[in-house]
């Protein structure tokens, strides 16, 4: 059976021609992410056995305790992408500033920059709940052979050339898009190969699952409160089901398969919400739109937001198109 399934490597080669910048570099980039994902997956799966759980003592720019696996995953992805000499820069949730790769080498003809959340949901690690890696890929906008600048990273989400995530769950999956739909690959750990298990993934236009941290309810804008009450009302196909794992990648993945909406609104404690535009919201928004879903900040398409800083946060509503449009309706009614 396995021999009938297409591997990720075969899929990349077969679809390389469809990518307008056919140079093989993006394929090599996806392949290096595949390798790093396997290495991180191995550590995530044995985290309970080896002393790499618990905070690394440091805190990242977000002021969050850095779990050792966060640090490990960050190092592995940066190391893998650097060693293959494919990218000219990397920005990461775990790095205060972007990391220039071989930027002193004027022969550095690498065209791509990668923005990454190496281990999203890491607070779930030591309670054995799934976590994920999120990545976003752009072509640099500054001249080849010159040092990469912040301008290469502060690009609108609608300029992404590829985006995806790895979900380290009951099975490990790599889900990504290069602008030609969304495809999911499941890792067979016995042989270390990703197989195409979910071709052409699509958000159902409607869903019955809403994902939000209702512990923040009293701090939400009135429109969001009204939408949550709408989800809970006995009417038509409602009440909906509330499912919130505390891991964006897992909630997104389930909602894409079953239909649903993920929400991280602004609230009085976080005036722009918690999620970061560049390496969480933009890549997930690219995937959502490629899968017939939608992603906004309640007013504006996420991928049209002009970034101003590397770690900026935005309110985030993402998932089944009709559900996102419904919460936008409630929000806009109050503003
Ligand atoms: P809260 C994980 O830290 C994360 O960025 C997302 O993966 C997750 O959905 C959210 O934050 C959880 O945040 O405030 O509800 O615990």
Structural features, described:
The structure is a single chain. The protein is an alpha+beta fold. The protein folds into two domains: 2-198, Fructose-1,6-Bisphosphatase, subunit A, domain 1 (Fructose-1,6-Bisphosphatase, Chain A, domain 1); 209-334, D-Maltodextrin-Binding Protein, domain 2. Helices cover 29% and strands 23% of the residues. The chain has seven helices and 15 strands. It has helices at residues 8-16, 25-46, 68-83, 222-232, 248-258, 277-290, 321-333, and strands spanning 55-59, 65-67, 87-92, 99-100, 112-120, 131-139, 162-168, 172-177, 183-188, 193-198, 209-211, 241-242, 261-264, 293-296, 316-320. The strands form three sheets. The chain has an eight-stranded mixed sheet, with helices on both faces. Strands 12-11-13-15-14 form a five-stranded mixed sheet, sandwiched between helices. Helix 1 packs antiparallel against helix 2 (25-46), helix 2 runs antiparallel to helix 3 (68-83) and helix 4 crosses helix 7 (321-333). It is globular, with a radius of gyration of 19 Å. 6-O-phosphono-alpha-D-fructofuranose (P6P) binds at residues 120-121, 123, 213, 246-248, 274-275. The site of 6-O-phosphono-alpha-D-fructofuranose has 9 residues, from loops.
């Amino acid at each position: 059976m396995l021999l009938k399934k297409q591997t990720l490597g075969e899929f990349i080669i077969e679809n390389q021609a469809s990518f307008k910048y056919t140079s093989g570099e993006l394929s090599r980039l996806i392949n290096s992410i595949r390798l790093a994902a396997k290495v991180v997956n191995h550590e995530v799966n044995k985290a309970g056995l080896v002393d790499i759980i618990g905070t690394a003592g440091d805190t990242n720019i977000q002021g969050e305790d850095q779990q050792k696996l966060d640090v490990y995953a960050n190092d592995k992805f940066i190391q893998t992408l650097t060693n293959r000499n494919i990218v000219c820069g990397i920005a990461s949730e775990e790095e205060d500033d972007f990391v220039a790769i071989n930027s002193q080498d004027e022969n550095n003809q690498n065209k791509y920059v990668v923005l990454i959340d190496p281990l999203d949901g890491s607070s779930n690690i030591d309670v054995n709940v799934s976590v994920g890696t999120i990545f976003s890929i752009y072509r640099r906008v500054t001249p080849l052979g010159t040092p990469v600048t912040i301008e290469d990273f502060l690009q609108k989400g609608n300029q992404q050339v590829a985006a995806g995530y790895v979900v380290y769950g009951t099975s490990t999956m790599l889900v990504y898009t290069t602008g030609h739909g969304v495809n999911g690959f499941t890792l067979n750990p016995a042989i270390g190969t990703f197989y195409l298990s979910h071709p052409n993934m699509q958000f159902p236009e409607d869903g019955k699952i809403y994902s939000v941290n209702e512990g923040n309810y009293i701090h939400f804008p009135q429109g969001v409160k009204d939408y949550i009450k709408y989800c809970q009302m006995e009417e038509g196909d409602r009440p909906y089901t509330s499912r919130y794992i505390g891991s964006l990648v897992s909630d997104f993945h389930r909602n894409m398969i079953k239909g649903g909406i993920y929400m991280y609104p602004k609230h009085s404690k976080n005036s722009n919400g918690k999620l970061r535009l560049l390496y969480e919201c933009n890549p997930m928004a690219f995937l959502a739109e490629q899968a017939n879903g939608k992603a906004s900040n309640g007013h504006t398409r996420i991928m049209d937001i002009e970034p101003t800083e590397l770690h900026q946060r935005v309110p985030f509503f993402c998932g089944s198109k009709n559900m996102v449009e419904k919460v936008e309706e409630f929000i806009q009614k109050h503003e």
